[in-house]
Design brief:
Blueprint: H1 3-8, H2 21-26, H3 31-58, H4 60-65, H5 73-76, H6 81-102, H7 104-122, H8 130-149, H9 156-182, H10 199-221, H11 224-229, H12 239-256, H13 263-268, H14 271-287
Helix pairs in contact: 3-6, 3-7, 3-8, 6-7, 7-8, 8-9, 9-10, 10-12, 12-14
C-alpha cells in the first residue's frame, strides 16, 4: 500500500461506524437516514485521517522509539513532513464539504471533534487518565454526530453507556500499548504519562467502567424511550449477559498479553466478537 494511504489509517475508519448507532437505536432504517449517516461516516473519517496525519507529525520522534509505531510512514521516512502538511488541509476540506452538505449541525459536531482531537494530539494524550477520558468522549461524539445527522434525539442513558464502555475500551487500549512497550525492557511509555507499574490499576479501571456500562445499558433498556420503540423491549435485557461475556473476555485477553492493539480493531479480526455481535443483532430484531 502507498505510504500516503497508510498514513490515512483507513482501517481505523471502522470506528466511525458508530455514527450508525442512532440509526439502529431510533429504528430509522429509511434510505434518507442511511445515506445521511453514510455522509456522517465519511465526514468523520476524513476528519480522523487529518488528525492521524497531524498526530504522526507531532509524534514522529517518539514513534521512532516505539516497537510498533516505528513502521508508520512519517516515522520511517517514507513520507516527508511537507507532504503531511499538504494532506491535512485537503482532508479537512473534504470532511467539512461532506458534513456541510448534510447539515450545519453535523459540521459543528465535526468541528468540535477536530478541536478536541487536536488538543489531544498536542497535550491531552500526555496527561495520565485525561487521555483515556478524552478518547471516550471522542467515540461518544461520533454517536452524537450520527444522531445530529439524521435529526433524532439521543437518549441520555445511551450517552452515559457510551462514555462508560468507551472509557473501558480506551483504557484497555492504553494497557495493551504499555504491555507491548514492557517487552522492550523500558519502564515508561514514550510520550505518555504511564509506566509498567500502572498495568494492574489500568485493568481494574477498565473492568469497573466495563461493568458500569452493562448496568447503565440495563437501565437504558427499561427506559420509556426504549419501551416506546420496541414491542418486546424486555428482550433487550438479554444483551447484558452478552456484553458481560465479551467485555470479560477482552479484559482476560489483555491480561494474558493476547490483545496487543486497539480492542476495536482486534474485534474486527476476532470471530468470537463477530458471533457476539450477531447475537446482539438477533436480540434487537426479536425485540422489535
Amino acid at each position: 500500500m502507498h505510504p500516503a494511504l497508510r498514513a490515512l489509517r483507513i482501517h481505523q475508519w471502522c470506528k466511525n461506524l458508530l455514527v450508525f448507532v442512532p440509526v439502529v437505536s431510533s429504528q430509522h432504517y429509511d434510505a434518507v437516514s442511511l445515506l445521511t449517516a453514510l455522509a456522517a461516516f465519511f465526514a468523520f473519517s476524513f476528519a480522523a485521517s487529518a488528525v492521524y496525519v497531524f498526530n504522526d507529525l507531532v509524534d514522529v520522534e517518539s514513534d521512532r522509539q516505539h516497537p510498533a509505531k516505528c513502521d508508520r510512514p512519517f516515522a520511517r521516512g517514507d513520507l516527508s513532513a511537507s507532504t503531511g502538511m499538504v494532506m491535512i488541509p485537503v482532508l479537512l476540506a473534504a470532511a467539512f464539504a461532506v458534513a456541510a452538505a448534510s447539515s450545519w449541525r453535523l459540521a459543528a459536531v465535526v468541528a468540535v471533534y477536530l478541536a478536541g482531537t487536536t488538543l489531544y494530539s498536542l497535550a491531552l494524550k500526555r496527561v495520565m487518565l485525561i487521555d483515556v477520558i478524552a478518547l471516550a468522549v471522542f467515540y461518544t461524539l461520533r454517536v452524537a454526530g450520527g444522531a445530529v445527522a439524521i435529526a433524532v434525539p439521543i437518549s441520555e442513558w445511551l450517552v452515559i453507556f457510551c462514555v462508560f464502555i468507551f472509557f473501558a475500551l480506551a483504557t484497555v487500549k492504553r494497557y495493551a500499548e504499555i504491555a507491548v512497550w514492557r517487552e522492550t525492557g523500558r519502564a515508561e511509555l514514550a510520550g505518555r504519562d504511564y509506566n509498567v507499574a500502572d498495568l494492574p490499576a489500568l485493568l481494574a479501571l477498565a473492568a469497573g467502567a466495563a461493568f458500569s456500562a452493562v448496568v447503565v445499558f440495563a437501565l437504558y433498556t427499561r427506559s420509556d424511550f426504549v419501551r416506546g420503540l420496541y414491542s418486546r423491549s424486555e428482550l433487550m435485557l438479554a444483551i447484558c449477559p452478552i456484553l458481560i461475556y465479551w467485555l470479560s473476555r477482552l479484559l482476560l485477553l489483555a491480561h494474558r498479553g493476547v490483545l496487543t492493539r486497539d480492542p476495536i480493531l482486534f474485534a474486527l479480526s476476532d470471530w468470537v466478537s463477530w458471533v457476539t455481535a450477531a447475537l446482539v443483532a438477533a436480540v434487537i430484531l426479536a425485540a422489535i
